[in-house]
Amino acid sequence: MTASTASTAFDEAIARDQRIEPADDMPEGYRKTMIRQIAQHAHSEIIGMQPEGEWITRAPTLRRKAILLAKVQDEAGHGLYLYSAAETLGADRGDLTQRLIEGRQKYSSIFNYPTLSFADVGVIGWLVDGAAICNQVPLCRSSYGPYARAMIRICKEESFHQRQGYELLMTMMRGTPEQQAMVQDAVDRWWWPSLMMFGPPDAESPNTAQSMAWKIKRHTNDELRQRFVDMSVPQAAALGVTLPDPELRWNEERGHHDFGQPDWAELKRVITGGGVMNEERIRRRREADSDGAWVREAAAAHAAKGTS
Ligand SMILES: [Fe+2]
Ligand SMILES: [Fe+2]
Q1: Phi-psi map region of 153: left, alpha, beta (phi>0 left; psi -120 to 50 alpha)
Q2: Ligand with smallest separation from the Cα of 78
Q3: Which of 123, 145, 246, 247 has the most other CB atoms within 10 Å of its CB?
Q4: Using one digit for the tens of pLDDT, what is the confidence trace for 263-302?
Q5: How many A from CA of 77 to the centre of ligand 1?
Q6: How close is the Cα of 75 to the center of ligand 2, in Å?
Q7: Residues 41-62: tens digit of each pLDDT
Q8: Residue 278 and residue 112 in contact, taking contact as beta carbons nearer than 8 Å
Q9: Per-residue pLDDT tens for 114-152?
Q10: Which residues surround ligand 2, an ion (CB under 5 A)?
């Protein structure tokens, strides 16, 4: 099959809203974009275990510890499904990890902020997993089959994460003034970084148009950010916390909330390695990779014997 007929079959499948599967012909640009997006997503799930994982040994009760352990394990599972999805495009998992720990591939900027109190666990569940859900629900209809199918399962688990975070915050807000202040402080620190999770404004997002044409992405960054703000405002009111944005107000005409702009220079700084926790996150990932090398070698040696 020539390159031009391959791209025709691909274009037709995209136009008919059919899924692209691993054995299908696809343009090289599509394959590369998909590998990059899935790898960044997988890296984010794995690095995302760290900020909350730090609180497992310090959880205030056995129940909270069990919930947090389950949540962090889910994130490991998400990373594994996604690395598998990237492998269906010909990527090598070891190579992707290498790219991550050498700083050649990115992960979500949100995980480069520190978790300063147990309220952060609740706020991450509510806002960070909440933002992830806004981003990921449309990806369940993404054009690449293995990615879309992985997202369906991941989104189910993300809903649990969001609920557990919100429930934790509700409990703290019914507690002492100190506990309420911890929640407000965590909301103040995580609100703007959560808005940044949707990426730069559409006008400065060069890849959006191509990703929308290929139906990898179904909504623009600004549309998803708006959806997240509209969803979070009533939840904040029910919780009794203030979102730290003086420009936040309901706009009757638009039928949406108006809101202030995050500090885009900060996003640029954090995504290129200048966040408070970037170095630590990568250092720990590199350490985990070398600590686990013997397990991978043993597994490969066992597999090579051809016995089960
Ligand atoms: Fe996840
Ligand atoms: Fe999650």
Answers
A1: alpha
A2: 1
A3: 123
A4: 999 999 998 889 999 999 999 999 999 999 999 999 999 9
A5: 8
A6: 6
A7: 999 999 999 999 999 999 999 9
A8: yes
A9: 999 999 999 999 999 999 999 999 999 999 999 999 999
A10: 129, 158, 161
Q: Cα(278) to centroid of ligand 2, in Å?
A: 20
Instruction: Tell me how far the alpha carbon of residue 203 lies from the centroid of ligand 2, in angstroms.
Output: 28
Long-range contacts of 254-259 (CB under 8 A, 24+ apart): 256/226, 256/229, 256/230, 257/226, 257/229, 257/230, 257/233, 259/195, 259/229
The alpha carbon of 71 and the centre of ligand 2 are apart by a number of angstroms equal to: 7
Q: Which CA distances in Å does 177 have to 7, 142, 184, 193, 299? A: 62, 45, 10, 25, 52
- Give the ligand whose atoms come closest to the C-alpha of residue 158: 2
Backbone angles phi, psi at 220, to 5 degrees: -80, 165
Residue 241 identity? V
Distance 255 CA to ligand 1 centre (A): 30
Ligand nearest to the CA of 79: 1
CA of 26 to the centre of ligand 1 (A): 28
Using alpha carbons, select from 39, 140, 30 the residue that is nearest to residue 82.
39
Model-level pTM? 0.93
Q: Which ligand is nearest to the CA of 151?
A: 1
C-alpha of residue 287 to centroid of ligand 2, in Å:
23
Q: Return mean pLDDT, the chain.
A: 94
